[in-house]
Design brief:
Blueprint (H helix, E strand, L loop, with lengths): L1 H23 L37 H4 L3 H7 L8 E3 L15 E3 L4 E8 L2 E10 L2 E9 L2 E3 L5 E8 L2 E10 L4 E3 L14 E2 L2 H7 L4 E2 L7 E3 L7 H4 L3 H8 L22 H12 L3 E4 L18 E9 L10 H6 L2 H5 L21 H26 L6 H5 L2 E3 L7 E3 L15 E7 L7 H14 L4 H11 L8 H13 L3 H11 L1 H8 L8 H15 L3 H14 L4 H13 L3 H14 L4 H13 L3 H14 L4 H13 L3 H14 L4 H12 L3
Antiparallel strand pairs: 1-6, 2-3, 3-4, 4-5, 6-7, 7-8, 8-9, 8-10, 11-12, 13-14, 14-17, 15-16
Helix pairs in contact: 12-13, 12-14, 13-14, 14-15, 14-17, 15-17, 17-18, 18-19, 19-20, 19-21, 20-21, 21-22, 22-23, 23-24, 23-25
Length: 666
């Protein structure tokens, strides 16, 4: 009841804020000057653990093997130990053969995984009758997922990691598109895998600053140090004979989660088993959390809260569900994940009695007697989990059932209709309003474009329009950009001074590219107003901060084209292609520049590269039709024009070309 009342109270407080704002404001005011940035203070907590110091570094799980061999071997059999590996027949759980086909009815594309010797490949193709009219084959480099639920697949091109459009769902032994690729949302081979994603499925990779998804090293499998922290100091001390009797005292050179408070124990798990909208604290990255720290020092994790309806859960949010349990609430959070789970031993190798004992230690003889009575009439009721932690569908991963970690009595009553109550920072119920506003913006942009999220963001950002920090400026730019209010962005920038923004606000290179994104959005707002000079300055700033970001580089090159700086634009697109040889848009743009410079054969080559990567790229279809028409190849021009209009019957450039071609027929 205490937990429900906290939600209820939060909802009514939010309602009162909304009512007040509806009466007082119609839109966010951007008239207030946001002055030069004030110092941003980071949360600094003294830690007794030596491996929290900046001098400590990660050494890899193999460094643990000699002293902890039994734990090392058994851990490799767990879901975490098997979470990420090279794409080999030994790692794959799928039985792949000629009939292992996936069909995307929305895109009219087939996917066929196959082994070429011991290398896993995937071919994308399209049929027209019995003819194959499109074919693209990519290599799979990594398999992500333990195989308990899924195997998904990753391709690495020039260091850039992308998800492949094929997943094997092991519970149903089924090939299908990956989560998020369904219902017409298939991004094919272009879904980039950023640090937030890979860092929870793996040991910590080494992301290249200025990119979204380029790595110099991707380790294999979640390793010991994700739960124990960097191991360099511990290994060095051990090798030099500095040993600690851990039966009598804590070894502060390494974190043993069992020595932590239950809150901090859960934070170790929550870093990856509380999967929601993660809002980093100022100056923090996904590298910064270390076991033994409070997760709130690094990030707040937001999840949508609902009232009524059937249970709804996502694949990797075990902590959120556990925190809704009566067991957790009635003990004021005095339960933790490792009371039930030994991270070194897979659940499949753990006796049911281990889990039952955790329950009976609290619930005592009454619970034991109750279950003995039930077992007499139903022999299948031999453990607590079976009844009180049901296996349910996940709302974010199809074709799987997962154990619901909300420990509860089986519900028999009819559920009231589901009602969205708002986003809640699950790990920090006292998060500040401004961070809540950022949470709503990120939820909208990353997961679900619900207008309610933008309305809520406005409510929480409104009181901060007079703040002076860089983070506030970036949040306002993001809000206005997502609401298509480009004029407000321009007003905000001019009120503070373009040079101040460029020199003082948007200067930091970080793993999330936050300043680069803000510069990019500001650039778009000025380009939308045909102020290309100012747009150029902000796009240039964006690519200085994120020089390996293909989208930003393409946008900068396109602006140069609009400014008739074709040779300079061609150089920009060539730089993109040197880093991203599979970037179809860069090939289209490069081909256009070659056409403008009358390099017809080079233009055709670039366009053909683009069409081989994506047969449905409408712009390249129009450009190819124009190219062939310009060299009097009417037959080929009509082929590409027909394909374009089939995909987009109202495409203005295609219709204009069609009209021109008809005029010249007479």
């Amino acid at each position: 009841m205490k937990h429900f009342n906290s939600y209820k109270r939060g909802f009514w407080e939010l309602k009162q804020v909304l009512l007040a704002l509806i009466l007082a404001f119609s839109i966010l005011s951007c008239a207030d000057r946001i002055a030069e940035s004030e110092p941003e203070t980071a949360i600094i907590n003294e830690s007794p653990y030596l491996n929290h110091h900046d001098s400590a570094f990660y050494v890899g799980k193999e460094a643990c093997r000699d002293c902890h061999y039994q734990n090392y071997v058994s851990y490799l059999r767990t879901g975490m130990g098997r979470s990420f590996g090279y794409a080999t027949p030994a790692k794959s759980d799928a039985v792949i053969g000629p009939d292992s086909l996936i069909f995307d009815k929305h895109k009219n594309l087939f996917y066929h995984p196959f082994w070429k010797d011991s290398t896993l490949m995937v071919t994308e193709f399209r049929l027209e009758g019995t003819d194959t009219i499109h074919k693209r084959t990519e290599r799979v480099d990594f398999i992500i997922g333990s195989g308990h639920h899924t195997n998904s697949h990753i391709s690495v091109v020039n260091g850039y990691a992308y998800q492949i459009p094929f997943t094997y769902y092991t519970q149903e032994q089924r090939f299908d598109l990956p989560p998020g690729f369904e219902n017409g949302e298939n991004t094919r081979f272009s879904r980039y895998l950023g640090l937030e994603c890979i860092s929870c499925h793996n040991g910590l990779p080494e992301l290249v600053l200025g990119s979204q998804n380029k790595y110099t090293h991707i380790p294999v499998g979640i390793d010991c140090e994700r739960c124990h922290g960097p191991g360099s100091i511990h290994v060095k001390r051990t090798k030099t004979g500095i040993l600690v009797d851990t039966s009598k005292m804590i070894d502060y050179s390494i974190v043993n989660p069992r020595r932590l408070s239950k809150k901090l124990q859960n934070d170790v798990c929550a870093r990856c088993h509380l999967q929601g909208t993660m809002v980093l604290k100022n100056g923090k990255s996904f590298y910064d959390f270390k076991p033994g720290m409070a997760l709130t020092d690094v990030m707040d994790v937001f999840m949508p809260s609902y009232e009524g309806g059937p249970p709804t859960l996502i694949m990797a949010s075990h902590i959120e569900r556990m925190m809704e349990s009566a067991c957790y609430l009635k003990t004021d959070g005095d339960i933790s994940c490792i009371q039930c789970h030994n991270p070194h031993i897979t659940v499949a190798e753990t006796s049911r009695n281990v889990f039952n004992k955790v329950c009976t230690d609290c619930h005592g003889i009454a619970a034991d007697a109750y279950h003995k009575k039930e077992i007499i009439t139903n022999k299948s009721l031999d453990d607590c989990v079976q009844c009180h932690m049901l296996k349910l569908d996940s709302r974010d991963i199809p074709h799987v059932k997962i154990t619901d970690h909300k420990i509860s009595m089986p519900e028999t009553d009819t559920q009231i209709p589901t009602r969205f109550k708002g986003l809640v920072a699950v790990n920090n119920r006292h998060t500040d309003p401004f961070t809540k506003g950022r949470g709503y913006l990120r939820e909208y942009e990353t997961y679900y474009q619900n207008p309610i999220y933008l309305d809520s963001a406005r409510v929480f950002l409104q009181p901060h329009t007079k703040k002076t920090s860089r983070s506030h400026f970036k949040a306002f730019v993001q809000y206005y950009f997502l609401t298509d209010n480009y004029g407000a962005i321009r007003h905000l920038v001019k009120a503070n001074g373009i040079e101040v923004i460029l020199s003082n606000f948007l200067i930091k290179q970080d793993y999330e590219n936050e300043d680069a994104w803000a510069a990019y959005r500001v650039g778009q707002s000025f380009e939308q107003n045909k102020d290309r000079i100012t747009a150029w300055a902000f796009y240039k700033k964006a690519i200085e901060l994120a020089p390996l970001h293909a989208g930003m580089m393409n946008k900068f090159g396109s602006l140069l084209v609009s400014m008739d700086s074709i040779p300079q634009a061609r150089k920009v697109f060539a730089r993109v292609l040197a880093e991203h040889p599979r970037n179809e848009q860069a090939w289209v743009n490069h081909g256009f520049c070659e056409m403008q410079l009358n390099n017809i054969s080079q233009a055709q080559r670039s366009y053909q590269m683009a069409i081989s990567l994506n047969p449905d790229n409408i712009q390249v279809l129009v450009n190819l039709a124009s190219l062939f028409w310009s060299v009097n190849n009417k037959e080929q021009a009509e082929v590409y024009l027909k394909r374009c209009l089939l995909l987009s019957p109202e495409h203005s450039q295609a219709l204009a070309l069609k009209t021109e071609m008809k005029k010249l027929e007479f």
